[in-house]
Write a structure and sequence with these properties.
By secondary structure, the chain is of the alpha/beta class. The protein is built from 46 helices and 14 strands. The termini are far apart.
Amino acid sequence: MSGARTVTISFAGFNRAWAAWIGDRLERRGFRVVYLRWDSPAEIPLEDCLRDLKLAEGRILVVVSEWYFQLGPRTYEEWNAALRTVVAPDPSRFAAVSVTTSPVPTAAAVLAAADLTNMGPDEAERRLLDRLDVSADPLPDSANGARRGPRFPAAMPEIWGGVPRRNTRFTGRESLLNDAYHLLQSADAGAGVVALHGMSGVGKTQLSAEYVYRFGSEYDVVWWVNAEKRVSYRRYLAELAPKLGLATGQEYGERLRAVRDSLRRGDPYARWLLVLDGADEPDQIWDLVPTGPGHVLITTRNPEWTEHNSRLLEVPVYERYESVAFIRRRAPRLSEADADQLAEALEDLPLLLDQTAGWLNDSDLSVDDYIALLEGGIDQDVVKVSADFPLAFQTAWSILLNKLRETVPESVDLLRLCTFFAPGFIPVRLLKEMPHDELPEQVAGLLNDPLLWNKAINQLRQYSVVRLESHDTTSDDAAASGESLYLHRMVHQIVGKDMPAEDHKEFIEVVRQALASADPRRPTDPELWPVYAEIVPHLKYADVLNSTDPNIQRLVFNCLRYMFFSGEYAAGIKLGERALEAWRSLLGETHPRIWELTYHYANLLRSVGEYGRTEAIERIAVEHLREERGPQDLDHLRAAGGLGADLRGLGRYDEALELSQWLLTAYRELLGEQDSRTLNAQNNVAVTLVLLGRFEEALEVDRRTMEARRALLRARHPWTLYSETSYALDLRLLGRYADAESVQAKNVRELLLVLGENNPYTLKGRHNLAFCHYRSGDHEPAGRLFADVLERSERVLGETNPDTLRYATSQSCFIREHGDIDQARELSETTVARYEVMLAEGHPFVVGARANHALVLRSVGERDHAYTLGEQAWTDMTAAVGESHPWTLGCAINASALRSLVGDPEAAAELSKATAARATEVLGRTHPLTLSARIAQAADLRSLRDRQQAEKLEQEALSDLVATLGPQHVHTVSARRRNRPFWDFEPQIT
């Protein structure tokens, strides 16, 4: 193509979106477009740079903006001279469009730029084409519809949220921006994840923000998320649901599930960009990073993101030329030599350059004098703030704080208040919303005077100490109110160190009260979990555990309860441990608050399988409270309920039932039938009955509990939903598979809506639904659910969590029969080993896992090993739960089959006969386990050539199978084909 049909677009990197849109418009009309990012290094004369530009092919189209003329940096006088010398003699080589309303060098008039500001895309395109002397006739539909081009730069993406304001002083980083862009664009579908990795203060967040503004026109959705904590990340991501137009309710879990599913499918938007800012703990959030056709950009100090399907891009300190350019734009009074000297002293760290250059520009202090101050303030006794921080940082900040004190002292007060929140996004609106009745005088003045408040914030902004953010709205009014400030962790740390003791005492108490005032006091309500997710990260920095204020201690309890119900077990255990240590020292070993704290802490520990530890903790509490207050004390009853749960976890089911029944009677006498604590005790009785194999009794108790919770709480309360899951489980364990599936399918829909797909309660419900499908013969949906539940539990709860081990047990059994036997064996071996570590030898779950493994060994042909393990499992299960327990009967069914397999039909028949008789007595003649035992007995009689009796027993069992499950049920069909039945051990909820 001839040069006459070639256009070279010269643009500042800041205006890349304009260049991309202009190029797309021209390419659609048959032009060949060359993109040339403009730069004018300070060491090269500007005239030479322009002459080099004239070497470009075709006509040169300059995208005029103040950015174009600032690079270098260059003065407008330099530009005027260069334009007159190089461009004016040959104006036909150049054309220009203007995308700014800011002043530009006067000699830029020679470019005769067409103004593209303050108009829509159609008029902008017409003016562009007119400036290039190109016809603006409409293109054929085929030319316009062949591909989707970049969005018009003046138009925001369809959805835009949480993005920081653009840093108009952003400098350099061109290669990093381009590298990030190409890594994302070239990634396979579902793998577009790039992590910007670097030390604190290096500018990762600013780089990400600039990426968003430069490339945002290529996306329909741009969503910025604070990812420093899992709880806050989940909250911010869930807030995307209404923006995407997803039909969800207000429930937090429902929104989170819908958002991730929408992004994965690319419906309604496939071109999406999600920015995860401050994601320094990949283990905490990697499982929630969306996949799909869009892109994810992460800022982090942690290189371990490479282990989670992410491309790592290192962000170093500035190159020296970038430091010099940035300083001269931030502080125009400084010369190039001054800027170079300052950059050397501050080690090219962008954050420090920004803050120091800002106030140096307003100061009479010379760079030499400033560096002397730095050097004079540092000696061998100075300790670094962090090993990552430059040595000069501490002294540089002392100088800056003195400057703030001299100008607006209230700004220092506000800054110090912020250090008692977690670094990053500071919800200062909590300070404005708290009661102001008893605030210290200096803080009350700041919070009650809007003018003083704004003055303090503006002073901090001026020196780049904080950024203004407004997460929920982009209006200027909301931002000006200071809803949220962003405080860098380096600044947070140094300001926290440099504080008088009196201010420390007053300010920390203010923040504690602000957090307590924000507590909605309903931690079991999923709709309020986002509030707790916002509060939790700040507890550590406000040092709430060293407060004796009852309201603040109540906040700690509510946060622990929120973590328990939402499944944030690891974080809850850490908080509980720290609280116990602090409060025992602060309040004494036997203070009433200690026993309440012990209860919440034990709940969290028990959720990860620490039954031995929790039993010791709860037993001490129970004995102390019973002796001090008597057996009817509510705190004593609560601790005893925890002890009952420990006994269930330890496999001591008879003791647990006795204690649980006593507790239920005590609660009924004290509180009546309809109190939620009474219903919790009633629920625990049913849980224990299931563990004892008394399924009919459990069903009746669970039914009463479910109906009472529906009446007392509400249909979608987590405890009501849990009762529905328990009721469906009882139905399934009784062989009422159709009824169970009907109840459980509805329950799962509600769980997903209310709690989300990763909540422990939801996982329990979906696991039971998988079993309902499996027992009904629907293997495909069962297999998908078993696998998905296990994968989610491993990610969210951990591979050794008790729930995860239950799901692993089920998955290994399923794939043994309907999948990869080698994978089944590996998973089974791992599960047995993990149970052996968690639980004592002889625990029913250890024995049951081994019984399942014997069936795996049978399937791979290791008959003798399988026989030995199966016999031992039957013996050990008998010792653990008694000869009539369904688990023991199941082990006996397997043992009889293995006896037959190794050539001992007489012993097999003897065992299957006894098992069928006992199962009939315990469970009834039509229970699925009994029917399996009867079919097994018939098979053993056939092996002994007692065909008449075998035929009689088989026909009776088949008749009961048809009557109970139906003629085409998978179990009926299998029995008719004379497939020997087996039994899978299923660990139950404790």
